[in-house]
Amino acid sequence: MSGIQLRNVAKRFGDAEVIPGIDLDIQDGEFVVFVGPSGCGKSTLLRLIAGLEDVSGGTISIGGKDVTDAAPARRGLAMVFQSYALYPHMSVAANIGFPLKMAGQSKAAIDQKVKAAAATLNLTDYLARKPRELSGGQRQRVAIGRAIVREPEGFLFDEPLSNLDAALRVNMRLELSELHAQLKTTMIYVTHDQVEAMTMADKIVVLNRGRVEQVGSPLDLYNHPDNLFVAGFIGSPKMNFIKGAYAKEHGAATVGFRPEHTTLSKESGAIKGVAGVSEHLGSDTFVHVKLEDGTQVTARCAGEMAVRHGDTVWLTPEDGRLHRFDEKGLAMREAAPKLRAAGSGL
Amino acid sequence: MARAVSTRRKVFFTVLAWTVGLLIFFPILWTILTSFKSEGEAIMTPPHFLFFDWTLEGYHEVQARSNYFLYMMNSVWLSFGSTLLGLLVAVPAAWAMAFSPTKRTRGILLWMLSTKMLPAVGVLIPIYLIFQKLGLLDTRLGLIVVLFLINLPIIVWMLYTYFKEIPGEILEAARMDGANLRKEILYVLTPMAVPGIASTVLLNIILAWNEAFWTLNLTTHDAAPLTVFIASYSSPEGLFWAKLSAASTLAIAPILVLGWFSQKQLVRGLTFGAVK
Questions:
Q1: Which of B13, B126, B127, B163 is most buried, judging by how many CB atoms fall within 10 Å of its CB?
Q2: Do B179 and A102 touch (CB under 8 A)?
Q3: Measured between CB atoms, does A99 come within 8 Å of chain B?
Q4: ipTM
Q5: How many CB pairs under 8 A join A and B?
Q6: Which structural domain, as residue segments, surrounds residue A212?
Q7: The CATH number of the domain where B175 resides is what?
Q8: Residue A96: closest CA among chain B residues belongs to which residue?
Q9: Could you tell me if B78 and B140 are in contact, meaning their C-beta atoms sit under 8 angstroms apart?
């Protein structure tokens, strides 16, 4: 197979245009994450690729074959749903074996493949159980088992971890990454959680209002966001943005710097503000600062940093870590002359 | 949080529930008791409740006078036939409405239900004439079609509410797993909807079994079900309460037994979707 190609793929629901037209290339074996806020069209895009929704325009090809009008089952893709979508009346074994049964495989072959998948996913002891007798994490594993057992050409994940608790989510994230490393199959993963996107993806597709804002590797998006939206969406806590005089000094309409690229001092610095709430995480402290013009920004400091509420503080963005944006919110890649003179830049 | 219920309240409501329950059941109980009385005893005032000469006289006479088995078989044919036909039409209809709704689905559902509000007598003459012309009067087929049509809205509604409860994602998962529409309905939808389909079937059988207006008006003998059998005891010679009660008891017994064994399903079916 040679990846998945979308050409001008559009989707309308009645008069509402959810996706105006997207071009995207997904390479064979890549782990691609679609990320964006609720309602940005990421799940719709995944469903279009799956064939669960019909496209309103454009073409989708998988492995070089046009599958725009092919039924979901004929696309060679397996999907893991947010709600797991297990068959409640079937045992775990029957759930995992269902795609094989639909493909008309023999009982012995199904049995053997189900056992192998169950062993990979630590489900061997649960094969006779019904989904309702499993925990959330186990159900998710059954859903993954059902997807891997048929050895698809690609996997589609629709926010598969959002129903799990935080600790389990971290575990499953690792397991999925491990699975990708083992199988080396194309995976498309939809999430609104940028941490999931950053930690798992080979390539992130940031979507907003049905449009692709930027495509790139996690670090590429983190270090070189194309616009304000991507800059604000990728990274946690989110990037600080400052307009006005300070931005003008740098020849931009808006400047952005990440909390982790900000030095906080009680004596001196580039930007003056008043400390608000400090969030102590042990390893780090997030200090929220209100600037003189009312803008709220955050600085990531050392864990033992002690700043009192109401203290006057100074913030200094790290050299070379300042992001500049024009009036339209687009990134200004060329270094500002002033900055070069001041020894700082992008 | 559980509400604290005082013992006095509990006793009060228990007594109230039993009273209401017995009140509702009383006519059936009285019919059954009367069926074991002699004609003289049956019209005695004040009536005797339990202490009378129990006799099977009524049953013997009913059995001697009419062929109970023929009527019962007709009832079975009509109720099961109309239900089966109803399912064949309603399952795909409800599937389409639940999983592939259009702008007008809601309207169609309401329109279907509104047909139940039309008084049946309003269409009696046209239907009677159509049946006459087609030679369907007093035939099982004609009655099955009529009962199927009058109960279809209820079957579609009930199945629709059941199907709506099944998450669409599960059916999509089946589609991704390679199931075509037939396999999707066979392996995934139907097993998940079995409780719903079962209670729909039960309710429809009961409705068809008890239906009296059309069965009385469109049949005389050949296709006459138990409703006609009962009615025949209230005519020319006047009322013979014991015999009438024996006939009624025989007519309702099968459905009473069916209802008793399936009450859990029925209650679930009737209250489905009511609280959510």
A1: B163
A2: yes
A3: yes
A4: 0.82
A5: 58
A6: 4-228
A7: 1.10.3720.10
A8: B177
A9: yes
